[in-house]
Batch of 4 targets.
Target 1
Amino acid sequence: MKVDKTVVTVVRDGLCTGCGTCVAICPKDAMEMTISKSKGIYLPHVDKQNCNQCGICLETCPGHGVDFDQLNGGIFGKQPEDILLGNYLNCYIGHATDNNVRYNSASGGLVTALLIFALEQGIITGALVTRMNESSPLEPQPFIARTKEQIISACKSKYCPVPANIALKEIINEDGRFAVVGLPCHIQGIRKAELVNKKLRERIALLLGIFCSHPMSFSGTRFLLDRYGVQPEEVARLDYRGEGWPGHMTIHLKNGIKRLIPHLDYNIFFWGLNFFTPARCALCCDQGAELADISFGDAWLPELVGDKIGTSAIISRSARGEDLLKQAMSKGEITLSSLESDRSRGMVAKKEQYGAMSRLAHLVGKKLPSYRTELPKAKLADYIAALELYLAIFLSRRYLWWLIRLLARIARLAGKSLRLIGLRR
């Protein structure tokens, strides 16, 4: 029986992260990312006529496994002393000094400010970033930004599946030095691809990772629009974050009306209750983008509760990342202050739950990714959290949308009945 050497096997096993690395690295251009309507995520499609079974896509895919030990040794020259944080030099909190950048970003504007600084200083010639597609506003658009304005156009978080690494193809085919902004799975894919592609290794100057517990599927976005009475075809632009911190979701309609959804409204639903979480994301052990040069996330700290503009949490991991931070601070582009590693650790605790998540998945016959790294021992609380997450995934896949609609209708009918009773009395 002929063995398939492509990522078709990864998709079949339910392990694809949708990162897009395989599309960019394929020497035959035999792959593309398409949205699975049933799963609400991106999956690769292989053109079997053009594919020559070279195996490069499978070799660079982070979905079926990542050898963190090997990559940590090659990137940082050592294994991490801190199991949860990974290799790091310093932890900070900070923000951009440009108030417009800071206010209109997701949290602090550090990534945007650093990319602009690196571009203007000639450190990079472009940056792989993601904006929402103008012609299809509910879908993301990874691209290479080459101007300050283009970098700013990609600010704010994108709470949907993003195949960012498809744009690596442009980096491979062009001269220059580039920064890449991505989630942990994107960074993992790039690090694996750098091992087999010399051009990619030489042209990537900086990897900026974003903390990620999980995105929400496209089904989640559609559910949210439905909940607020908005049809997808009515949307002109969608901003998941921005306009201060923690900000809100802004739905720009084609008729000129703006609908604002408070951050708390959807944050509790999608990240507190974990509805519409892609199943593969439950089996990820890397919340803090451990293989990046610098990692960033919202600084959810008690002393920042009153912060209305935004502050970032930063984990500096490599010498080139630390150097960029110090240069930008010395030029007055950003502000930084030290943060104890213990407090940073609480922001990237997903690895603590991986043991429980993987064991429960194994019990029901699910394929598991192969992670070569030291993992903490799962506790009872981790198993409870894992059960809650899997229940949310199950419900949002099969019943939730229908159930919430039904409950909403019952509530409306009950309200009408109470009003009628009141009128009769």
Note: The chain has 17 helices and 15 strands.
Target 2
Amino acid sequence: MSAVVDLVALTLLPLSRWRAVSEQLQAGQAAPAILEQHSLEWAGLTRSKRRCPGMPALRARAAAALDRAAHNSVECVTWSDSRYPETLRTIADPPPVLWIRGAVHICEAPAVAIVGSRSGSPYALAVAERLAADLSGRGIVVTSGLARGVDSAAHRGALSVGGCTVAVLGCGVDVAYPREHHGLMADIAATGAVMSELVPGTPPQAIFFPRRNRIISGLSKAVVVIEAGEKSGSLITARCALEQGRDVLAVPGNVLSGRNRGGHALLRDGAKIVETADDIVEELGFGLGRALGPSIAAAGQGTTENDPVLACFQPGESSDVETIATRSGLSTAGLLTRLFELEMAGLVRRAGGGRFVRIDRTC
């Protein structure tokens, strides 16, 4: 428990020190030693010692954050935790701690980020919702930032088909921002995840949002930009994606309005044009021809007795992903891909609320 407290305490240091902390953790240094070093340096740079809490005070605040998280059903997933997303471990500035409301295991599944303008046009919102719904229908997790506009449209699109979506916040996971998204946050946490690197209770600040963008892209195989102006925060996410070796794709928009100049700049620089979810699936190598293996082809012809996933369903029963994973012994990531294959073969269908039903053929 002390190791967890020290890792949380590291996130209570000044923001200017977080990059160095991440690099030291990646280099294999122990959290207590890192915490001691930065606490002493911070104190040396601060004129008034009363403004600079020492290690005991930082650890006390960290312990209080863990208590608050436990009280609000928030999981604390640290750098040293086996549940920490592998996709984030490899980025240049991984967060020492992730606070997660909802399904921690969802980070194992393939994900695509959809981001864009907070004041998106009706066209942009409709595209975001449609793309998210279509991707979710293929078993792909949609990540975004829960902001107004394109972000929230993407989350709602994923939820509309019973899919899973991940919201990465620039505040604590128990703080609704914007306030009108309190209900949307709850819906996301019910089947997907709401996450942040900031301790519970942290209010939103402008400086936090550019940093959270690296987590959105880091969790994803690609970032899709929908309607971004020349100075849009979505371009920060796109830049993070490129630095992390992720694909960047963009949706073309109205050239007369000026709303999508940032998106069009990405297209001029070589970003893949997106018109439908098929464009994204094809670019990432999730094409149907590659996804359907011999066993699924055989299943489509009626040989289903030995399929480990189909065998998990009881007649007329709808099952959620966790139940099927437990019965089949598959990882969540592998299971979501398998369910998508079975759905494409017409052997299972979605029953809403993230549940699936087997389709038994009688002829």
Note: Residues 80 and 96 are 8 Å apart (CA to CA).
Target 3
Amino acid sequence: MAFFDKLKTKISDTFSTGEVGVGTKSVTSVLIALLLLISIFGFLWDTEPDLFNVVSATSEMTNDLGVRNVPGSTTVATTMTLADILLHKPGGFLTNDIAPPGILMDNVPNWEFGVLVQLRDMARTLRNNLSRSQSQSTEDEGLVAAENQFYFDNSSWMLPETETEYANGIKALEDYLIRLGDDNEQSAQFYARADNLRTWLSEVETRLGSLSQRLSASVGKRQLDVSLAGDPSAVQSTATQMDSEVKTPWTELDDVFYEARGTTWAILHLLKAIEVDFRDVLQKKNALVSLQQIIRELEPTQDTLWSPLILNGGGFGIVANHSLVMASHISRANAAIIDLGRLLQEG
């Protein structure tokens, strides 16, 4: 009882001498300092990585590993570099953060998701097509592991954490790259063929087409259902309205925009890697310049964004619509990719 009596006396003295006010000021000062620190880190982390030279990155990587630079090395090394930047850019991987400022940010996490989708698509194409001579050939075990690692949940923060799984995916790709450049190792192959390139381009075409639609829907538009067009005997599981309005919610405009920025950032590097590894195929098909034009169409998507907000001005209004500008670049690139795929098949 003596302890509680002393505690009550101490509390009474604190209130009577005004020490509570001093304590409150101290707590307020700490909270303000913490908020300022969070804001500074949030500002520093809210930046997108710059473009890098895929040829230089590949040469540096193969030299460090002590292996030859062979067809396929640039594509694999570029994929690894994209994944490494995803994990080690300022702030690291933010999507799975559970503490500020990461948990309060959404621009960079959406950018990360755009890059991640391209990593997954390339890992799957490497496993299923680029490393196999035909459909009945054996899969490369290292690429099987790499694909599985990159498909791990991107929001897991522990047991296991996402960063660890993606780092294991990079290691699996590194093992494949080492075997690819080893003259004494024949288990790893990369087949730079036109049909393999078309397979990956069809993946890119699908992703860009979806993004273009979502970006264009920033202002809303009337859309007819053309799902069954061209086939009078076609059916679908559930009936849909013939005429509907498609519009991206205003709360998701910046999410879609930054996902598009991440997607095009990754695709730009992969296209430049493809230009190196598939140069002979592209030249024989007279399609090299077509690929280079696609790269030109996508480069403006990485221009500096000067506005602090993603604006959603309508149509020909006085306020810019960043989503429509991005959709324009992506649509042009997507149309060129479709033409390139047709050229690779028929040229």
Note: The two ends are 95 Å apart (CA to CA).
Target 4
Amino acid sequence: MKTTVARRVVWIALLVSLLVVIGFLLRPVSYFNALIYLKEDFSGISSRYVRVDGYRVHYLVEGPATGPVIVLVHGLGSRAEDWLNLAPYLVKAGFRVYIPDLPGYGRSERPRNFSYSVHDEAAVVVGFMNALGLRQVDLGGWSMGGWIVELVAARHPELVQRLILFDSAGLNIRPDWNTGLFTPANAAQLDALDALLMPQPQPIPGYVARDLLRRFHQEAWIINRAMASMLTAQDVTDALLPDLKMPVLLEWGAVDKVTPVAQAQTIHQLIPQSRLDVYAGCGHLAPLQCSAQMGPSVVKFLQQ
């Protein structure tokens, strides 16, 4: 009798293990996300939601409750978790770090009636800060997120104490790369996107690539709507940047192909009080992949 029960337990365990393996091979990205969320919980990072202009916006928050506040805004096709390599430097320095998922990204709502334009996302960032009672914050943005925070700083300077732009977009410069790569439809385009975003990308296993492409297909309408709006140049910031009065830090990857260093130098010239740091060997994903070099510089700027 005991032998029969033991055999059943073994068979059930084997069956469950098989189902887990099959599930992982079919949906590996979901498993990777679950591990990231679990790590956040064990690291003391709070995952929360707030209503902003009627939309359910997800955000992460960590660091001492009484620390000076910094808000970090991600870019196109990105999410809050992409800041998690840089955030520990800020937390260790005593900052309270808020990282929202913009509408359409991460764990935030994906409303069909939203434009996903830079100016409407900027309005959500302002609404997010107002909803949480955040005033006179340090504000950082990466890529499209940099463009968003440029608008916030220009239109609501009373909310921003210091501004940090990471490989930021926003200038009236049409991309010389294939914007369609942000919604890859096959493995070759996915590889081309990786090569655009980072130097020396690692090969993506086939089963992971398939799941990534499935997700890109599901969310392509959001990326396409946002990209189409940006390409109209209706929200470009060339004329706004010279009027910024707060201290500004520009953090850039030296081999960024999406927003090349030449754009950083233009922004630097447009903002006389800005400081520009360029990191050798780093691409457009510098805040994620070069955080060890970037983190101390950002903290030093914020503590001045």
Note: The mean pLDDT is 93.
